[in-house]
Structure formats: structure tokens, C-alpha cells
Amino acid sequence: MSIFVAKSDGTTEAFDPAKLRASLKRAGAVPDEIHKVVQTVEKDLYSGITTTEIYRRAFAYLRGHKHTAAARYSLKRAVLDFGPSGFPFEVYMAELFRLEGYSASVGQIIQGGCVEHEVDVVLSAKKSTPLSKKKDATSTYVEAKFHNTLGLKTDLKTVLYVKARIDDIRAANPEKQIRGMVVTNTKFTERAVQYASCVGLELLGWEYPLKGNLHDRIEAAQLYPVTALTTLSKGEKMALLNAKKVLCTDLPQNTDLLQQIGVRGRRVDSILEEVGTLCVSGKEI
User: Where are the alpha helices (DSSP H) in 44-131?
Assistant: First the structure.
């Protein structure tokens, strides 16, 4: 008899241990750890269990045994933890694009044919990049659509207004090559994908496209946010975000900031050690 799991979008699906194993493997857990985590999750499995509860059990085991794997496993939720303003997400995305070879600026006011537009991130290619096979004069205007709840999706109305915005910017700059792009930390609805594909609007979501999605690109760049660090409390993470320190690689150059938010003594060393294994080498030492 199948055990059904309640997903964050309100749907249900049969529990599949292979999906759990795959996510644990991707996080860097070794086979023995994966086996023990699956055993832990399956021990008290019941029909109607939520994906959040399954995540909580797996994360608790990893955090107690392997901090780096726990941080990678929690990456999606770490981005969700940026908070309601969404501003750190824009900063975070700009840094990701810079690491991929773009010139990126945040919160730009761009004149359109009819009105001004505040664009979350403006990109230009400095070298060959995922959006441009060769260096060119193309500018990409990015709408960073942040959600702080797992079940929320970026829908058709978002891509409709982004397309209208791009068309207005193109009208004011007929000599320029201009692309539009929507980035979200969750998923797109099917209609949003269908429309964007039809009109040539780029989409980048947590699991979209199948290859080269946002999750893939964050891991390739090893661009982990401070909210992924298991050695920080929730309050300390929020304090760092309020200080506009989004990346865990910001911390080695700002140890005084750690002290200002109340981190003292050996905890500073523990945090910096996790930064070193997760955000610099990307491997356990």
C-alpha cells in the first residue's frame, strides 16, 4: 500500500525513496548516510505526511552528522529565508550572474517608450555566458520574482507584465539588442512557461529548465547564502541580511560584524570553518 505525501502546492504523490536518495546524494551525503537518513524518514512514515516534515527529519540527521551536506540539502529553503522584501534575492542573483561572466547592476531605472521602469537586475555580457555564446552588445533585463513560501508559483500574469515592460524598453531603444528574463526561486506555472516560450522570454526557476536551472547554477558557482549556514541561528542570519551581507563568502572579511551581532569565541571559528568547507572549497576537509 502506497504512502501518500502532501506537497507544498496542495497536491499529493506517493512517497518515493529514490527521490529522497537522489536529493541526499546531490547534497553530498555518502551511501551509508543516505541509507540511514532514508531509514530515519521511513521509520514513522504515515499517509498525509508533508514534504516539510520529511525534509525536517532528513535535515536533522544530516545536521547532526555532516554540516556541509545539511547546508546543501537545505539550499532551497535557505533562499526562501531571504525574507519578505526580496531585496537580498536581487543582490544574490546579480552576484550569481557576475560569477558567470556578466556585468550586473541592481535596481536600475530604465526609460521606456511610454514610462520609466525599475528593473531588478540589468545584465550585459563580458564574455561567453549561458545566455550568450559569444560576447555581444545584448542587454538582459531581469525580473527577480521572489517567493518565501514553497507552494507559490510564478504565474502567467507575471510573464505578461514583464513582456510588456520589455516591449516598452525596446521601443525606446530600437538600436539595442534586448532580452527579457524572469527568475524565480520556486516554480513557474505551465501557462507561464507556455507563454514565455511563445514570445521569447527567458525563464529561470529552481527546477526550470531541466538542465542549467537555478539550483544547478548556484551549485556550480558554489554561491551559498548566509541562510544556508547551519552554525548560525535564525536571528543571526536575519541580522546579516539586514546588514546586506547575503553571501557566506562575505563573512571571512567581516568577522567584526559577527561579533556585532553577538557571535563570540569558538562559535566564530565554527562558522568560518563551515564557510571554508561549504562556500570556498565546496568539499569536506
Answer: 51-65, 67-73, 75-80, 87-99
